Structure formats: structure tokens, C-alpha cells
């Protein structure tokens, strides 16, 4: 859990919108500290269900199915979205650059930053939630029919299924929201729309 969230949080930090600036503190230092806190929290939350199942509940087949296989995927997707929102929080706190259709920067918008972070968090949750949920469901039926005779064959099939699902879901999750996001005029701050007659505005969403 810790290694996984460390990697995804670092990826979010590197591929965020880097137009945010502040004279009071280093945005990069703040994001690193927030990221460490988010990673630790997400790793603990991800491990809590299995910890409580092993310590306080009976290991019935239904409990193991829910906690070890089905609950893991949505929880991982939720925590992935959480780490994105935390590590990129300076973007909606300070705003990101908004451009017109010609690429000219017309201002810095907190609302655009909030929209960019929200879209990225949703796409990350969809990616990892689906990538871990579908293989878990598939492997449950494989184990029920005893299709794989050995543990090695079962592990190989699980890895193959995860790779296939991740390969298919990755481009879909990246294309849910465009890289160059669009925001309506009425959704921007009054000081930005008052300085231009443009009706379409764009921003870099990040990955």
C-alpha cells in the first residue's frame, strides 16, 4: 500500500500544473510534505480492513471475498483520488493559468484549478478502481470452478488478467477528460472575464 501510493502520488506531483507560484513558501516543498502525509494516511486506510478481519472477525469465505477482493478495489480508487487532491491542493488554493483560444494567458483562476484537480482525481479513481475490481471478480469465478490447478497457474492468470484490464483501462481513464481542459466564461472569476471578451477559456489539466 505504501509503495503503491508513494509512486502514484509522486506521479501526480511531477505531472501537475506548475504555474502555481507563491512568495510566502515553496510550493514544491509544501506539496512534498502534503504528499508524504497523504501517502501515509492512504496506506493505513487501505490496510485497516484486512487488519481488522485478521484480528477481530472470523475468516468466513464471504468475509474474505468482501474484504480481500471486493472492498480493496473501491478503497484503492478512493485513496488514489484522495492523494491527487491533497498533493495538488495548491492548484485550487492559488489558482492556475487560464488561456484563450490563441494560447494567450488571460489570468490565474482558482476555479479552473479546482476543476483540473477534480477531473484528475476522478480519472485516477476510475483507473485503479476498475483495474483492481475486474480482475478480482474474474479470479473469484476462476477459483470457484477450479480452473487453475496449481497456485503458480492461479498467480500467472491473475497477473495476466490484471495486465489486460490495466492496458485497456489506462487509455480510457486518460481520455475521460481532455488534457487541455475547457472552462466556461460564467464559471470563472469576475476579474478575469471583465478583462477580456473571449467566451472560451482553456487550462492545462495535468495527468
UniProtKB/TrEMBL annotation:
Predominant place of localization: mitochondrion
Membrane topology term: Multi-pass membrane protein
Keyword entries, A-Z: Amino-acid transport, Membrane, Mitochondrion, Transmembrane, Transmembrane helix, Transport
TM spans (from-to): 32-53, 65-87, 121-142, 154-177
Keyword Transport: yes
Subcellular location: Mitochondrion membrane
GO BP term, example: amino acid transport
Name of one Pfam family that matches: SFXNs
Molecular function GO terms recorded: monoatomic ion transmembrane transporter activity
GO cellular component, as recorded: mitochondrial inner membrane
Family: Belongs to the sideroflexin family.
Name of the protein: SFXN4 protein
Gene: Sfxn4
Amino acid at each position: 500500500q505504501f509503495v503503491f501510493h508513494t509512486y502514484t502520488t509522486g506521479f501526480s506531483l511531477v505531472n501537475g500544473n506548475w504555474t502555481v507560484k507563491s512568495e510566502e513558501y515553496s510550493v514544491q516543498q509544501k506539496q512534498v510534505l502534503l504528499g508524504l502525509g497523504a501517502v501515509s494516511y492512504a496506506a493505513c486506510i487501505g490496510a485497516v480492513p484486512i487488519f481488522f478481519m485478521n484480528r477481530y472477525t472470523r475468516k468466513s469465505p464471504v468475509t474474505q471475498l468482501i474484504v480481500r477482493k471486493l472492498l480493496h478495489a473501491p478503497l484503492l480508487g478512493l485513496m488514489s483520488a484522495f492523494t491527487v487532491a491533497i498533493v495538488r491542493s495548491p492548484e485550487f488554493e492559488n489558482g492556475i493559468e487560464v488561456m484563450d483560444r490563441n494560447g494567450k494567458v488571460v489570468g490565474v483562476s482558482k476555479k479552473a484549478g479546482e476543476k483540473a484537480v477534480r477531473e484528475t482525481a476522478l480519472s485516477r479513481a476510475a483507473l485503479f478502481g476498475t483495474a483492481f475490481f475486474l480482475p478480482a471478480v474474474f479470479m473469484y469465478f476462476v477459483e470457484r470452478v477450479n480452473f487453475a490447478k496449481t497456485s503458480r497457474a492461479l498467480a500467472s492468470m491473475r497477473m495476466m488478467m490484471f495486465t489486460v484490464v490495466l492496458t485497456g483501462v489506462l487509455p480510457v481513464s486518460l481520455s475521460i477528460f481532455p488534457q487541455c481542459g475547457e472552462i466556461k466564461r460564467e464559471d470563472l472569476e469576475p476579474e478575469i472575464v471583465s478583462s477580456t471578451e473571449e467566451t472560451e477559456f482553456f487550462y492545462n489539466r495535468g495527468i
